[in-house]
From TrEMBL:
<comment type="pathway">
    <text>Amino-acid biosynthesis; L-histidine biosynthesis; L-histidine from 5-phospho-alpha-D-ribose 1-diphosphate: step 7/9.</text>
</comment>
<dbReference type="GO" id="GO:0000105">
    <property type="term" value="P:L-histidine biosynthetic process"/>
</dbReference>
<keyword id="KW-0368">Histidine biosynthesis</keyword>
<feature type="modified residue" description="N6-(pyridoxal phosphate)lysine">
    <location>
        <position position="228"/>
    </location>
</feature>
<dbReference type="InterPro" id="IPR050106">
    <property type="entry name" value="HistidinolP_aminotransfase"/>
</dbReference>
<protein>
    <recommendedName>
        <fullName>Histidinol-phosphate aminotransferase</fullName>
        <ecNumber>2.6.1.9</ecNumber>
    </recommendedName>
</protein>
<dbReference type="GO" id="GO:0030170">
    <property type="term" value="F:pyridoxal phosphate binding"/>
</dbReference>
<dbReference type="GO" id="GO:0004400">
    <property type="term" value="F:histidinol-phosphate transaminase activity"/>
</dbReference>
<dbReference type="InterPro" id="IPR015422">
    <property type="entry name" value="PyrdxlP-dep_Trfase_small"/>
</dbReference>
<dbReference type="InterPro" id="IPR005861">
    <property type="entry name" value="HisP_aminotrans"/>
</dbReference>
<dbReference type="InterPro" id="IPR015424">
    <property type="entry name" value="PyrdxlP-dep_Trfase"/>
</dbReference>
<feature type="domain" description="Aminotransferase class I/classII large">
    <location>
        <begin position="43"/>
        <end position="361"/>
    </location>
</feature>
<dbReference type="InterPro" id="IPR001917">
    <property type="entry name" value="Aminotrans_II_pyridoxalP_BS"/>
</dbReference>
<keyword id="KW-0808">Transferase</keyword>
<dbReference type="InterPro" id="IPR015421">
    <property type="entry name" value="PyrdxlP-dep_Trfase_major"/>
</dbReference>
<comment type="similarity">
    <text>Belongs to the class-II pyridoxal-phosphate-dependent aminotransferase family. Histidinol-phosphate aminotransferase subfamily.</text>
</comment>
<dbReference type="Pfam" id="PF00155">
    <property type="entry name" value="Aminotran_1_2"/>
</dbReference>
């Protein structure tokens, strides 16, 4: 019986062949990124993945319905998202050619890693922060070095990893919700040896952002997502802003059509409706302020947040049993434990009714 070679013109691999053995060792050795629980039953109060508690702009639904008509689904989408880039450029006050579209901001982070980091290179990031950065380094076969935040969520000066090929800085940060100010970002951009990526997934909830630095500093790239402030987590759309010359190079790295017709239509409609965006943002910020006050009354140490979530810790008792008690009542929050920093609950800002239910249950378990 033939076990290898060609059989009837078809290659038959040896019996000992295993696809697992063909996978790169660094992939087999990595743990992989683990998203938050996605239990989407209507009975669940979902406060664990920082989704927007309110629906997208009504214009989004109109745009999606329009995209479902005629030949739009039969044909390829705009490869560079030119219609979106023009709309976003007008709203943000940037050159449309400085915008790179992506299938969520995670896609953008992947494109940046592929473009800037060689195999065996180095990615740096503060910690605790977004754990996907480590996965991106491992996939690329690169080294990953973290720099601890101080207790007040500031960064060391000078920045100790000047030789990194790429530095990721989530700002506002997760899980803390803290946000470094522009002078600190400028100083960091001058100290890193390569591109500085300001991962601004939550910037729309903050009082300031790093977008002005893209025009001032040649190595700064800003990334944004529509999953949070524009309530489009299910659509998957994000973008980056960098100097146009850099974007032209990054276009070579992205998938040919990395954003589909529906996501482009939805994102364009969402960013054009700034009135609706501002109204939803104001509601979330008001609820965030109420949450912080009430959770503090319950004995939590709540970090001042510039995002749509709060980082809540305690000195007197463990918080994991609280997470479990809430889950038993169909209320999901995110339990996180970081070596050297302890554990805490990251709680997304929900509707006022959802937060009332959360607070009622927490009063029982606290």
């Amino acid at each position: 019986m033939k076990t290898s070679g060609l059989s009837g013109g078809v290659f038959v691999p040896p019996v000992s062949f295993s696809l697992m053995n063909a996978i790169r060792p660094n992939i087999r050795g990595m743990a992989g990124y683990v998203p938050g629980e996605q239990l989407n039953s209507p009975d669940i109060v979902k406060l664990n993945t920082n989704e927007n508690p309110y629906p997208p702009s009504p214009r989004v639904f109109e745009a999606i319905r329009a995209a479902l008509t005629g030949d739009k689904l039969r044909k390829y989408p705009q490869p560079f998202g030119d219609t979106f880039r023009k709309a976003a450029g007008k709203v943000l006050g940037v050159d449309p050619d400085s915008i790179l579209i992506g299938n969520g901001s995670d896609d953008i982070l992947t494109i940046l890693t592929r473009a800037f980091v060689p195999e065996g290179g180095l990615i740096a990031s503060p910690t605790p922060s977004y754990i996907l950065y480590k996965s991106l380094a491992e996939i690329q076969g690169a080294k990953f070095q973290t720099v601890p935040f101080a207790d007040d969520w500031s960064l060391p000066n000078p920045w100790p990893v000047a030789a990194a090929n790429l530095t990721f800085l989530p700002n506002p940060n997760s899980p803390s919700g803290s946000c470094l100010r522009l002078p600190v970002l400028e100083r960091l951009a001058e100290q890193v040896g390569g591109p500085l990526v300001l991962d601004e997934a939550y910037a729309d909830f903050a009082e300031w952002n790093g977008l002005p630095l893209v025009k001032e500093l040649p190595n700064v790239i800003v990334t944004r997502t529509f999953s949070k402030s524009y309530a489009l987590a299910g659509i998957r759309f994000g973008f980056a802003v960098a100097d146009p010359d850099t974007v032209r190079e990054l276009l070579k790295v992205k998938d040919s059509y990395n954003c589909d017709v529906l996501s482009l239509a939805a994102a364009t409609a969402a960013i054009e409706d700034q009135g609706y965006f501002a109204d939803v943002r104001d509601r979330i910020l008001a609820t965030r302020g109420r949450m912080q006050a009430e959770l503090s009354k319950l004995g939590f140490r709540v970090t001042g947040s510039q995002a749509n979530f709060l980082w809540c810790r305690r000195n007197d008792k463990p918080v994991k049993p609280m997470y479990e008690a809430l889950k038993a009542k169909n209320i999901l929050v995110r339990y996180m434990n970081y070596a050297g920093y302890g554990d805490g609950l990251r709680i997304s800002v929900g509707t006022d009714a959802e937060i009332d239910k959360l607070l009622a249950e927490l009063r029982k378990v606290v």
